[in-house]
């Protein structure tokens, strides 16, 4: 390589100066391939001083391309003669002396001047540019691989880049959109200003943001997009580019609007069938290739169509009441298995055979049904898609069904809850009959629709002795009785008649367009229908009811008055011996008022301590000594006068005062006993009457314990009388209460024995100490052999169970002697004394003791006066005592 002097080209100075200042490197190569010019920019690119290059062979620049191009000098005719220049551009790589590499754009010009051929090389460092281009190509590759549309705009929001997904979504190629305003292109004037303002706000924000926008594609079709926008800024913070990532959310948006539609319908309390219809219609809008239906599945597994506006009406009607099962179409099977069921061909699907005709007739060939479940996992409905061709659901169908199943569950559960509330509010849970509130509506309706000149009969029915069944056999037996009764009543009335339960054991029957005669027939039929006893377990429970009837408009024209009159008439049926009916009459009102007045007088008598206890002595047959006293309640009202306990005790039981009276009797009897003891009167025991209701209270034993302690009485001085009704059910609370009392040491006496139906085997297990033979047997014991037989039997039972047998209502010496002879231990009755006030009883007792003592003395004296040889004096134990 040889060097030459510099400069070698005679070039005007101004041109040289310009070449020196050029940005591109300029290298001039002579025809012998020696470098004759190398400007400042060339020095920078090659990092060589021109002195190291000028005059040397071009190969010193390490550029094979330059050498080859310079050698390949075109013929003069090709370059167009003197001064003709031809440019050839190419991209080259330059390896510098220090080993670093750059990429450059090489442009060669061949110049013929003065018979001299020269090659002028213009070289520009394009390393950065190429790198940027490569990066862009890579980014484009990546951007084109995402299915989210990408737009890059300049600072004026003019599009400079879009990816392949953008073309797919909007239908525009990059060529079509490049340079166009992004917002104008995609949104146009349709989008509201606030959305656009928000979009601009996100561009202005450092972190960018996301906005849902309704955009339009090349065809003008709506596309809901979510636009995630971010601006890129220059060093001074000014927006240079904006970048937007667009996601198609049309489906999400549609599902959300479906959801909104149903939720707002729910909030507006729209009926379930209307909601179901709206749901189906909307679904068919967003999935026009389907026909949809929503079914309710009730607790009994029966199908009830709720909505299916595009299905034939007769088809939906036919589905109503069909039971779900393993082969009941798509819906019945889906509900049965609790899993989606797809029948891609209704015509051949075995599950569809009985149901296929109608859907096929209307061109529905496939059905896909999904069960709707409640929060607790019950299947409460199905949501079905019918397709016009044999096909499975698409991904979009699946998304819709997911949303609809959720909405359907919400709507059905809410509707079921409301129906349950309505049932609770208007129907009696036990019998399923209309309750008081609903009955009022029904009576009002019956009156409103009553034909002119016709009547409405209203019967008020009360079960006889229901309290006894409840108290003695337990509440579940009582419930069973009410349910059975309701069924028997329903069987006796016509379909358009109405039956409802007011509460407890009270029922109302409304007979529209029926007069008194027709109502009497119904009432008689009802009485007869109750004759057959109810079987509860092994026990036959007799069933009967008392009814009162009032007639609209003869007796009253308003509902309350009609009910109240029928109630008053029912009370009269009860008094007439139960198991019968009475029509309302004007004086019944008076009697009903009287009953009301009595109960309020009794209430105030209890509150004012106006009740008293009287005491009737009980005498031992063996020696005439006092066995005890029976405490009997007395009530003297300032207005009503003396009211018999046979009247006011049932009244107290009816109006809930008996609990108080029971506790009061025990307390008062114990107080009196303590007083007598204090006074030195020797009365071994006091018997207090209690109602069966008192024994239903498990705290009775603790109440008694407290009273005995208060008065310092030993428990054996108290006897509590119970009637047979208390012991009918061996598992009742009453038996537990009795056992607790017996444990205390308090005595229990079975009153009125023989009048009820207590079984002897049960009697043996009762914690009782005493049997009382009812007055009715004592009355006839002398004249009636059967009464005597009963008394004898009771005495034998008592003896064998080691119970004291007390005969009550003894009025004559003859009765006393016979009862003593039959083995009665104790006698009570007017023969000795009626029930006496405490003071009178005290006097009676002293008198009795004195009489008894003197009778004994007389007898002893008589015996002593004429003693038979060797025989002891004899004292009669039966006759002439007292
Ligand atoms: N004809 C006749 N009657 C006689 C004779 N000896 C007694 N009596 C009456 O027979 C009834 C006996 O009481 P009871 O069978 O327990 O029958 C009682 C009892 O079941 C109930 N009773 C009375 N006091 C109370 C009480 O404090 N609490 C409760 N729960 N019931 C009571 O009222 C029923 C009636 O009581 P009273 O009217 O006091 O009637 C009492 C008594 O006065 C007689 O020789 N001949």
Report the end-to-end length measured between terminal Cα atoms.
171 Å
Assign the CATH superfamily of the largest domain.
EAL domain
In one word, what is the shape? elongated
How are the strands of the biggest sheet laid out side by side?
A: 23-24-26-27-28-29-30-31
Topology overview:
Blueprint: H1 13-21, E1 25-30, E2 35-38, H2 40-46, H3 64-71, H4 76-79, E3 87-95, E4 101-113, E5 116-125, H5 127-145, E6 149-154, E7 159-162, H6 164-170, H7 174-177, H8 182-186, H9 193-204, E8 209-216, E9 222-233, E10 239-248, H10 250-267, H11 272-286, E11 290-297, E12 303-307, H12 313-319, H13 329-337, E13 341-343, H14 357-361, E14 366-373, E15 379-387, H15 395-426, H16 436-448, E16 456-463, H17 466-473, H18 475-492, E17 498-503, E18 506-512, H19 516-529, E19 534-536, E20 539-541, E21 545-552, H20 559-575, E22 581-583, H21 586-607, E23 611-620, E24 626-637, E25 641-643, H22 645-654, H23 658-678, E26 686-689, H24 692-695, H25 700-711, E27 718-722, H26 733-744, E28 747-753, H27 760-764, E29 770-773, H28 775-780, H29 785-800, E30 804-808, H30 813-822, E31 826-828, H31 838-865
Parallel strand pairs: 21-22, 24-26, 26-27, 27-28, 28-29, 29-30, 30-31
Antiparallel strand pairs: 1-2, 1-5, 3-4, 4-5, 6-7, 6-10, 8-9, 9-10, 11-12, 11-15, 13-14, 14-15, 16-18, 16-21, 17-18, 19-20, 23-24, 23-31, 24-25
Bound molecules: ligand C2E.
Ligand C2E binds next to strand 24, helix 22, helix 23 and strand 28.
